[in-house]
């Protein structure tokens, strides 16, 4: 992971260097200096603004003091810590000489016109462009997993880490902590109340996997009554992640009597809880960019009874590709709610 991060930084430096030549040709005198200042400003801005929360965003670095800004309409001057609260889709952020930012909310933006006396950065649906002298130049994407060359890859790193955990550790219960959730060696029934071990397993994995300056803590209170299962805090940016864990399957206590049985409704309840946690967290952490992820450990089996020991593959894997239909689908209506991740836990079949 560290090697990959270093490779990304090297590639980013190469991309930036090639952009200076373009700026010199497109803008002429002052173009390279303005572009250098723009790149530095983008890194500062994206510590506070999450690019993936927007479809379109512009950042303007004037080459001359009288750059073409009059057509952008009303504006508000802001500081970085409150920037995330002010920026909306399609906004133009102008970098002022004193380091502050001016946010415009224009009805329409013409990048070609704006870029005649300025260097303009455009973010559009995970693609990035530079404008200068009326010319457009696409910025090469050094890593398809990252939303922007200039942003802190907090949420994309987290998603990638959980996807790896899903396929390499959770699927066959390869993690020793996760292996303790099973009532039987064939992984048909769960032990009573397995959620704490699931949380501990994922927490331990994330602590040793995520990159950068971060903290992973289990059971963190976000409202007056309930703790979220895992909270990830990045110290290099204003990013927070809340992870709610639910499980589905059949649970059997040690005495052998039938235990708890959870199906889709349990996951849907988790989605509702997470949405409420995100709302509560926004009250207490208004200047942070927060994302919620629902992680569902899926141990559902078909046609099992109290005496089931080892299943055939058809019954053991009946739910392998049975996705959950969420209603409401928070991940489609809220930008702070990631698409839920379902971890299918394989049984040992005959």
Topology:
Layout: H1 2-27, H2 31-45, E1 56-62, E2 75-78, H3 83-86, E3 92-95, E4 101-104, H4 111-114, E5 118-124, E6 127-132, E7 135-138, H5 154-170, H6 176-179, H7 195-207, E8 214-221, E9 227-234, E10 239-250, E11 261-262, H8 264-284, E12 289-299, H9 313-316, H10 330-333, E13 341-344
Outline the structure in words:
Strand 9 (227-234) and strand 10 (239-250) form a beta hairpin. The protein is an alpha+beta fold and 350 residues long. It has helices spanning 2-27, 31-45, 83-86, 111-114, 154-170, 176-179, 195-207, 264-284, 313-316, 330-333, and strands at 56-62, 75-78, 92-95, 101-104, 118-124, 127-132, 135-138, 214-221, 227-234, 239-250, 261-262, 289-299, 341-344. The protein contains ten helices and 13 strands. The strands form two sheets. The protein has a seven-stranded mixed β-sheet with strand order 2-4-3-1-5-6-7. Strands 8, 9, 10, 11, 12 and 13 form a six-stranded mixed β-sheet that branches. The two termini are 38 Å apart. It is elongated. Helices cover 32% and strands 23% of the residues. It has two domains: 2-138, no CATH class; 154-344, Trna Endonuclease, Chain: A, domain 1 (3-Layer(aba) Sandwich).
